[in-house]
Amino acid sequence: MPTEEELFAAVDALLAGDPDLPGPAERARLREAAGITQARLAQVLQTTTQTVKNWEAGRSRPRPPRRQAYQRLLEGWAQQFPTTTAPADTAPTATAPVATSPGEPTPAPPAPAPADETPPTHPAPQPEPAPTSEAPPRSRTPHPEKAPRPRKAHRPAHRLTPPPADQRFENGPLAVIDVEDGHVLAYCVGGLVLDVPAKSLPALIDWTLTEARLGQPRLHRNGRDGDPLLVLTPAALERYGLPTALSDEERRAGRLPDSHKAVRQLTRADWKLTRRGLGPWARIYRPAEGAKRHCVQLCIPAWNALDAREWDDRNAPRLPSMHPADLARYLGAYAERVMTPRGTAAVTGLELMTALHPPTRAEKDPVTGAFTRALNEDALTAVHDVVECEVPDEHPLLKGRFARHHLRTPAEMLMEEPYDWCRPLTDDECMRQYLVAIDVNMSFAAAANGLTVGLNGPTHLTGNPPFDPSLPGSWLVDLSHVDLSRVRVDGRPVDGGRLPSPFTPKGEHPTGPAWYATPTVAYAVELGFEVAPVEAYVRTRTGRYLDAWYKRLRDAYVTTMADLGVTTGLDGAEFLDAMARSRQSDPVMALLVGAIKATAKGGIGKLRQRNRGQVPYHEPWPALERATWRPDIRAAVLANQRIGLHRKLMKTAAAADLYPVAVGTDAVVYPSPGPTPLDVLPRTPEGKPVPGTFRLGVSPGMVKHQGTRTVLWAEEQFEEQGGVFNIANHIKM
Asked: Mind listing the pLDDT tens digit for each residue in 7-25?
């Protein structure tokens, strides 16, 4: 409790007004003239070196009691090292952001509960309140030329995009929370560093929502803003009472027990956790108020939130030793180009679909003026009935239908999967020295582009319905009569025996009726063969639901590759050279490329998320409750990917008598007289790629060099394995 004299002294000082501090440049000049380092000054004033940097950059102002001490020190130095002018500190005071909601012609619907929580009942939607002025963060400054930690040199992280127009989120979508010299710092996008005053986990959540100005504007006018994301380093975990590693039992459960001290702290502070609890990706929230959400997401890399299979380089992991500023740059770039991560890359890929096509919108009643929730016709809005042939074996629909270990046949199950095919080399192919593997860029995303998918539930067609390529769905049809050797491509025949069948993942010739997605049956028609479906399950409300999703991922991928020096418009040789240089260009952006690809591939996979032991066999698992659990859409994308690949195989075979020896997902292996794709891929007399064949380039759907091996190496592998096997994914750079 302060004494009366102390209170009167404070009031007198307030009446007199604080003297102006010298300007930022003068502060730095005086310190340097005195021969004092920033670290030494920080030690004297009992603060951090980063805070001193902030003062001298003009990004923050010292607060009492350090302000008075700093003022006295500067005045003493000014007498020792005078100058003709000492500009006063004229830093502007914080002003309220403009009370607008950029790009929002219609009000947003009520904010839903976090994705894995049962949503509470809310009042009818109201227009989102205009943003209000909040207390500015304690400090913010660009990241210094070198990291404050001695363990690693660090380049300054440049801001990837201009500051956001929405001042509610002026500090970016996320922050990496770290502790340095006993002080908590938040590393943000663009090299920004904030002081964090929070002493406990509940206080950290409060600070994030009231002061940090973190978050991301919605990607669609009818969507919702992205919740702020905090990435906690091991030092931050210790500071806020969380373990730096999960026990075996906690790892199996994927969360801390509800009895943990940190969970009890949150509960006492009236914060709630979603059903996933306090785990690697945790959502901490309070019930929404109309359209305003109160939710913060935690990402804890030490608990394997950033799985190396999606976010890191499995061969040379970088995340464990990555500086917080680099981690903020990496995840911040992902958030700006894709979206704020919501979990794994696969989960985020699925969430991106919903963010770009929200299921609902706010609609104003012309009579009452009240806003109600309406459905968007171009989105997935409900959980529909499923079809037996489209669901995996563990689905509840199949309970009692088959024996536990029964293997369903193609006539019982839709088997649209990527290629896994290989064949022996011919004698002529063995005379070529090399095997060159090419890889299709973002093949699953490219296959989604322009694809018409069903948006409603299935309609069962019986009695030998005619095939309609405009209706997405599943068709039971016999395609065993399709003979590739009878097909003419640009007037030329092909050797069907050296090509995989387009109708099965293993490339085997179909032997009877089987279930196929619409793109597969349409390809049989394109090849010139009659088709006669027996029955079908089709969707009558259709749309190009994945187009916006593809375009955002395409732009993210192409932009990031450009950061690595690989741009569109390069010819074959220039592209190969740029790709070779890119591997040593920027390790952080190289990781981002992998994360974007994992988002595309994993997002498609999540459309048919399987039961991985979450519940007993043939019992409903949580994913089935989503409107985005759509195995028919996944099947259509995979069918389109496989068919698109086969179409190019046919074009290449006809143009150059060139046949693959192995195809693995999106990798194709060709025998070649030379070690690069330029030695094998067909070109016109003018030196251009033959239309319709594989083309080197960075855009999705084009190909890059995956690797080269010798034919002798392949023969040795076959001998060791006792026979031919798929070598496509064993050939790497």
From this structure: 555 545 544 444 578 888 8
